[in-house]
Amino acid sequence: MHPVQQPYETGMLATGDGHEVYWEQCGNPDGTALLVVHGGPGSGASPWWTQFCDPARYRVVLVDQRGSGRSQPHAGDTTAALVDNTTAHLIADFEHLRSQLGIDSWVLFGGSWGSTLALAYAVEHPERVRALALWAVVTTRRHEVDWLTHTMGHVYPAEFDALLAALPAGADSANVPLAVHRLLVSPDPAVADAGARAWCAWEDRLATLAGAVQPSPRYEDARFRLGFSRIVTHYFGHHAFLADDAITGRLHRIAHIPAVLVRGRLDIASPLRVAHELAQALPLAELHVVEDAVHAPGGEGEQVLVDALDRFAR
C-alpha cells in the first residue's frame, strides 16, 4: 500500500440541475488518469482509496457522488438531494468531469456499489476506459437486492425481523429497501432517524459474518447515517435505476478492456456467482477470490489491487 495522498486540486462540478459534485485530484498531474468510484451508494470518497495508487504514476480523481460526501445538496440535510439522482446522472457527471479535466480515458477503480457504477459507465462509454480494478463486485440487479435482504433474512432471522418490524403497519415488504426509504423521507425527523438506524443496523449485521455485530463508527454521525440510508435505499429500491440486463447484456462492449475483479469468498452481501459470471463473459478479466475476506478486499485482495493498478499505469 502507498501513503495516503492529499489533493493538489479540488473543485465543485455544477451539473445544471441543482447539484454540485465535489471532486479532487491527487498524485502526479502527468500520470495515468484514474477515477475512484466509491461505494454505498452514498459513502463518499475518502483518502483511503489513494493508498492503492502509486502517486508517482497516477493522476487520481476522487468524486463524491450526488448527495454524498462534500457534494451539495447532501441527502442527510434534504430529500432534494434525491431528485435527479440516478445511475444515468452519475455517469453523466463522470463524463462532464472527464471532459472538464481534459482526460481522454482513465482507469476505473471501484468497490461494492462502485463496481456496479463503474461497469455501467464502462459499457456506456467503453472508449473512455483503459482498465477496470473492482472489488466486492456486484451489479445491483433485482435478484442481488433480494439476496441482501430476504435471502440473508434466512441467515440472520432475528435481525431481519427487527428490520421488518421498523416498517409501518401494512407496508409492502416485497421490496425492503423501498419500504425503508419511505420512512427515511418522512418529514418527521424522528421517523426518518428510526428508519436510518434500522437500515444501518442491518448493514452492520451483513458486514459482520459471525458473532456479535461490530457497529461501524461512521453510523454514529446522524447526518451521515440519514444521508447514506436515504441514498442506498433510493438506489437499491429501484435496482440501480437500470434494466436487469443493462450491464450483463452489454458486456461485449468491454470485452477488449483488461479487468481485475476481487471478491471475498465470505462476502454475503451478494452472490459470488455475479463476479464469476462477469469474469466468464470478459475475455481479459481476472477473478481473484479471497477465501477469508468478507465485504472488503482483505489483505490478499489489497495486494492484488495494488499489483493490478501498477500494471495498468503507463
How would you characterize the overall build of this protein?
It is built from nine helices and eight strands. Helix content is 38%, strand content 16%. Strand 5, helix 2 (113-124) and strand 6 (129-135) form a beta-alpha-beta unit. The chain has two domains: 9-139 and 242-312, Alpha/Beta hydrolase fold, catalytic domain (Rossmann fold); 142-240, no CATH class. It is α/β, with parallel strands linked by helices and 314 residues long. The longest helix is centred in the middle third of the chain and has 19 residues, at 189-207. The active site is at residues 112, 267, 295. Residues 33-297 form the AB hydrolase-1 domain.
Features:
eight-stranded mixed β-sheet, 314 residues, alpha/beta, cytoplasm, hydrolase, 2 domains, Rossmann fold, aminopeptidase, 38% helix, EC 3.4.11.5, protease
